[in-house]
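FW: tagging you since you asked about this chain on Friday. Here's the raw sequence from the shared folder, copied in full. Didn't touch anything.
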Amino acid sequence: MQTIFVQIKTELGRAYEVADLAVETEKISEVYSVSGQYDLLFKCYLDEGEDIGHFVTETIQTLPGVKDTFTIIAFKAFS
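HL: got it, structure written out here
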């Protein structure tokens, strides 16, 4: 299982709409509103070997209201 975090910049006034769509999207496990340069943070779990670029460009960047993304690939979780 691969874990990625995707920061989302939305069109003005559309953060809640994008968040509502994202929580219904398979493989996006958590959606947070955040402060700073980006509006939302998605935590996603992908199958091992699944193409991260295709997932981000075809699933996340095509959500209505998404303006920009920044993807972070996680290597190891510490508890």
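FW: The longest strand covers residues 2-10.
HL: agreed, and The mean pLDDT is 96.
FW: great, closing this out.
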